[in-house]
Amino acid sequence: MSEKIAVCVISGGMDSALSASIAKLDGYKIIGVHFNYKQRTEKKELESFRKVIKELGVIKEYEIDLNFFEQIGASALTDNSIEVPVGGVEDGVPITYVPFRNGIFLSIASAIAEKHNATALYIGVVEEDSSGYPDCRSNYISSMQNAINLGTKDETNIEIKMPLVNMRKSEIVSSSILLSVPLEYTWSCYKSEDEACGICDSCRLRLNGFKMANQIDPIKYKDDINVTC
Amino acid sequence: MSEKIAVCVISGGMDSALSASIAKLDGYKIIGVHFNYKQRTEKKELESFRKVIKELGVIKEYEIDLNFFEQIGASALTDNSIEVPVGGVEDGVPITYVPFRNGIFLSIASAIAEKHNATALYIGVVEEDSSGYPDCRSNYISSMQNAINLGTKDETNIEIKMPLVNMRKSEIVSSSILLSVPLEYTWSCYKSEDEACGICDSCRLRLNGFKMANQIDPIKYKDDINVTC
Fold first, then answer.
1. Distance CA B136, CA A64 (A)
2. CB distance A137–B147 less than 8 Å?
3. CB–CB of B135 and A144 under 8 A?
4. What SS3 class is residue A63?
5. Which one of A43, A91, B95, B104 is most buried, by most CB atoms within 10 A?
6. pLDDT digits (tens, 9 = 90+) for B193-205
7. What CATH number should be reported for the domain whose range is B5-187?
8. ipTM of model
């Protein structure tokens, strides 16, 4: 039997690192795909990706530059004139939403999957306990899988797996520890690349996950906010 | 009533030029989007796009660089080590198929549409009388529309229009002439940027369309193949 190959979208954050570790546990050889999309913490996330895939072991890696996200903008992550909110996670789609980002990522990852005859594509989307991005919802991902299989060769069959979609952040933390995901290498902060700010939505969700799991986040936060959160 | 905006994917070829002209006829203001994806005739197609949108009149234009297509390759259009076939259009998916190219294009165009509150997205796919690419089939495009609307904000509603999908190439030629599409500026050849080769699948389909429509293609072909085809 030929080997099972999965394309894993790996941002360098906690969620995608766990998602890729689950792919490995599921018996897949991993192709790691990372996107540089002119987000504020592009450099740090790329560094995290490289460390994560080194620990994980991959058969191939793609670092894909998507500079055009800057041309589109319309998000606090890709347009420096829009401030990253730090007041706490609110209802609705936040200004950090990057228009159809996961649609673009999944489309490119599918092209890579088709090239390498991969049969699975792992993405670390989280629906609950998340920022409320529409492109992280499971009904969207399922629909996208359907579109991808219609828009590629008949012999290409890609299953999009989203093992974290219904997990709470605390479960993500515990599962990551269980699977020895190198959380110390992962990066979630939207704002900073040296010390995590601790107050953007992404830091808040991460810190809350560690707190609920009774764990200490190994990464460095500004003013040691981690300890007092 | 606010103005109707459509994002039109315009490659610089005959089909997308007509598709965008139909969008205009349908009463939309046009945002023209062009992709440079490291295809062999990138420079010529960009030049054609610029001429076409100048004639068409657009409210905004995006020229998007997608250099990563070269990293993926796997197509005669994006990998120079694979020859462009010149023996005639055959059944099956040809080696000029670029993995999930239209999926990637539609995803990016959707992000642009969401930013600008556009309600339509025009793409010049042709299902019959075509090269047999899976990402040009109407069932794929419809499914992709569904995915896009699930993966974007609730208030974003994008209809993907494919006015040419069931047209023969000869109808595309006649309709283009009827709508004064500047066919002399369009480019279809897969291989060359100075004079069209006349023998790649794309040239063959185009020339056949002109022949069946009893028209003469205004662009220049190598060895004046146009005249004798």
1. 25
2. no
3. no
4. strand
5. B104
6. 999 999 999 999 9
7. 3.40.50.620
8. 0.97
